[in-house]
Amino acid sequence: MSLLFFSTLFITGCSSQTSEVEIATINKVEGCNDNDPNSIHTIATLDVLTMEKSGGSMREKNMKISNCKFLAILIILLGISNNLNAQVSLGLQGGVNISKTVIDNEIVQPQISSISSFTFGAIINYKINSIISLQSELRYLQSGNEQNLGSGEKITDYFNYLKIPIYAVATLPNLRTAPFILAGINFGYLLKSTSKYYFHNFDFTQFYNRTNISFDIGVGVKHSIFRNVSAQLSGRYSYGIYNIEKELGDRKTRGIQVLLGFLYDI
User: Fold this and answer.
1) Alpha-carbon dihedral 185, 163, 203, 103, rounded to 10 degrees
2) What is the chain's mean pLDDT, rounded?
3) Which residue positions in the chain have pLDDT lower than 50?
4) CB-based contacts of 167, cutoff 8 Å, min separation 6
5) Which of 10, 109, 151, 158 has a 20 to 30 Å separation from 144 between CA atoms?
6) Per-residue pLDDT tens for 155-175?
């Protein structure tokens, strides 16, 4: 606000300057007599000279005003940039993902159990105020499940996703170790899907939709290590709301993630 105020005063001061040509012209015209032919000739001559000089003067004045406005806009942009930098944090995180899939419309439900895999990626957090912030991530995540086929035979499905969640985060303020909650939508893009049967891997990517959407909720704690460096530990539950299969059934993902990340305030 202070930068905007001073920028406005700066523009106003620049635009309110009066040229020396205008002041000199006014003084000379006031000293002339309207009934004197020489005075009339003098006024006409002054008009011509004033028009010639004022043209250059106006150009110089406009250039000064333009320069002032440019400097004021630059000051405002620098102020906004500093404000954004003070509120943005970047970081990295990784952890474990315990996941499975559920099938809703099967008459005979297969015996599906969860598997443990991994996830890792980058974080960007934008702080709106002392409590609320927006957080987005770019993460690689492997999910899947294990199906019991009977007679001791099992098949394991793996789904490799590129995840881009967008969360609203609420954090208790003014604490070095601060708990937080988060919730939001998680957009996923399927990179590859494979199924492992004994020692053989089969590529089944073509049978699944590339897009997956889930709703995520979670809790965590953020601890300040140094002035601009902090660590955060979080647990999340991901509830898939989009069918990942193209034709066969209504199959959706479920997952629990435990993540450890480090953030740097820029």
Assistant:
1) -20
2) 79
3) 1-11, 15-32, 37-49, 51-52, 81, 85
4) 134, 135, 136, 137, 182, 183, 184, 216
5) 151
6) 999 999 999 999 999 999 999
| Strand-pair partners of 179 | 221
Residue 99: exposed, middle, or buried by beta-carbon count in 10 A (0-12, 13-18, 19+)?
Answer: buried
Alpha-carbon distance of 225 to 203, in angstroms, equals 44
Please give the radius of gyration of the chain, using alpha carbons only, rounded to the nearest integer.
34
Instruction: Specify the pLDDT at position 141.
Output: 97
| Calculated CA dihedral for residues 67, 71, 74, 79, nearest 10 degrees | -160
* Token pair for 145: 């499940």
| HSE-CB of 10 using CA atoms within 13 angstroms | 18
Domain boundaries, the chain: 2-84, 88-265
Query: Does domain 88-265 correspond to CATH entry 2.40.160.20?
Result: yes
Please give the Cα distance from 244 to 101 (Å, whole number): 10
User: Which residue carries 């960007």 as its tokens?
Assistant: 124
* Nearest alpha carbon to residue 67 among 11, 149, 127: 11
Residue 139 tokens, joined: 């993460």
What's residue 218's pLDDT?
A: 98
In this prediction, residue 248 carries a pLDDT of 72
Closest CA to 128 of 169, 90, 80, 178: 169
Give me the helix-helix angle, 37-85 and 2-15, nearest 10°: 170
**CA terminus-to-terminus distance, the chain:** 21
Run of H or E residues at 256:
strand 251-265
